[in-house]
């Protein structure tokens, strides 16, 4: 188990490494003892039939912007033992997954003993297999009733989330290695940058259709937020994070708690680049929050080249994901360096990967992004773990299941049997050796 | 596996037994070879967190008449293996359970491969344990979307149900021993007799609240139907049963198919009793349907003493269930005799039991109801099986979980561990001996 004390000690030791040696030394390929090598999933993306969640409703009203519905996802609700077996067989020592609030609290104030038992069994199952459980208390999806009361804009939303975290902690907190409250709460800031303009109108229509179906004024979800609602949602989430962190710490003061950033490697492409202003806009308020946490978690998939007036196109050539976007392996280290610099906190990479039908790209990404990461660590950035997204192909928001998936393993669409891809072997070999 | 041919042969052999011997012979305590000894459950009452079902919504709106919500029920969705182990350990050779339509078809036309796999695994699990799977395709609860379109009053309801049965049969039909389409479709006729008058006004308010929550004109469920809707619901269900039977037979012509009656032992307490008229009212149209089926299934919990103008009170004394109603062991044989007489079909008892906190009552009921049943068989009534309600304590409609439960086993409210009661031993000994 990672506890807060060893985490802080590790950070201090790493921070003691001189940031700039007089002469470049050859890179030590070995990672610190206890470094977390993991793979990640998220409830709605793998469990399947998450019918009581806000997203399920969004996916199944007309009009919808969600693309193919999540449906069965990859049936992890029933096959979580197979998931853990897979993670163990790959050679990992950590597994990141999330609790489905919609299952644990299916109606306001109705807590499910069965579902608390369910997630505790996953934590226990991790421990039995030598996997450190990295638990996200809320990975985007909220209960349908929560969205129907206005989601994070409701005045009581932070308290409701904290109460949920309290109940979960009392039941299963003892086994958790790392706790994360929210997943990418800053995502809404990035959406207008990466989605086409018509996306936002479609989103508003989708939310309105869900509100009609639920017979409420406003149906608000956490991962797709129209810009006009971002300030209120952010205020609610920041307070929710703080209350949740306090609730978790009240049960386990030793447990490291944080949240995860959607964080690009933001590069200044010109002297008069707007990069620093954009960083403030995309991360600023949440960086303030992370400074209060035990670690800063980042989830990186790309770099952004900022010019004076906006994002510049990526250079031609190079790797591309299934959507045609650049895949730039050093972006991971770039984001890690910034996150530490901006917060002073040790870093955990809780997502990094590539959506592609070509697993050789994933192999290249792993092989080419980890040396720069190790170099950043050698340069003094304390990094506590690398958790790849994702353990297996799963439901990708807006893109359905299968095509362009992110998995270290594929999943049979009928039996849901998991099968490791070559990239799993590559990451597993590094994990087992704890060395590049 | 029971197939239709052996069932008919068995019925013929039993029918050849002289109905009235010149002199009463001592009762042969042995049951026919292949007699089914089982215990029953129903999806919504045991699985838990059936949030996408019509009943869940009824339970969680205001006002509600459903009493305590089903919540976790007894977590059989996750613990079905334990349920099968329990049935096997008791010594039974049959297990009756139901498919949850709301899980298999969570949205209209969206069939869940994972949930089809789930229920097929239960059927396979029965076979491995020597349990004949007696499968109810629909035990009251329907998907929320089905209720929101008016349930069985919708013109397309029968076709939708038949389509669901077709998909289920294609996936798991090969392993089923006995198929039942609907559970107690005549229940709505009995409700006004057994519920207080204010129940119906409460029901109407409950349905209206659910309609508001779902933003639809009418929310109609199958097990609690206001009298004004019973004719339309019955018409839809009869057509639904016939289409479903055809869909099942199209895949497995050999599979015995029927539905189950809520059937009292209706006794004429006076010469001018209205008993026969009431039988016609409570069962008449469905008896016509049963005559087309392979068997008639009955679910018996009581006798009704009919006077000239209505129901007469039960005699004082005797056994009482947790609600204070008479428990009359010979009622089982009485209902069985009538069901056979009225249809000419072999009989399966698919429910019989008692809600009580005193397991000695259950022991008495089993011990005192089976000899009259065996006598009815000796008198020429072909009976193919006795399936007790219920395998374990579970969610009882309108009464919550626990108090006054019907189980042969109790269930721990925290771990959901099942523990056989003495009554399970009594029924199991009879089952294993296949003899009284």
Automatic annotation (TrEMBL), chains A, B:
The alphabetized UniProt keywords are:
Glycosidase, Hydrolase, Signal
Instruction: Kindly state a single biological-process term from the GO annotations of this entry.
Output: carbohydrate catabolic process
Q: Which GO terms describe its molecular function?
A: beta-glucosidase activity
Q: InterPro entries, alphabetically?
A: GH, Glyco_hydro_1, TAT_signal
- EC numbers on record: 3.2.1.21
Signal peptide feature range: 1-21
Q: Which SUPFAM superfamilies match?
A: (Trans)glycosidases (SSF51445)
Query: Pfam families per the record?
Result: Glyco_hydro_1
**One term under GO cellular component:** cytosol
Q: Which PANTHER family did the record assign?
A: GLYCOSYL HYDROLASE, LP05116P
Give the protein family: Belongs to the glycosyl hydrolase 1 family.
Q: What is this protein called?
A: Beta-glucosidase
What is the native source organism of this protein? Novosphingobium sediminicola
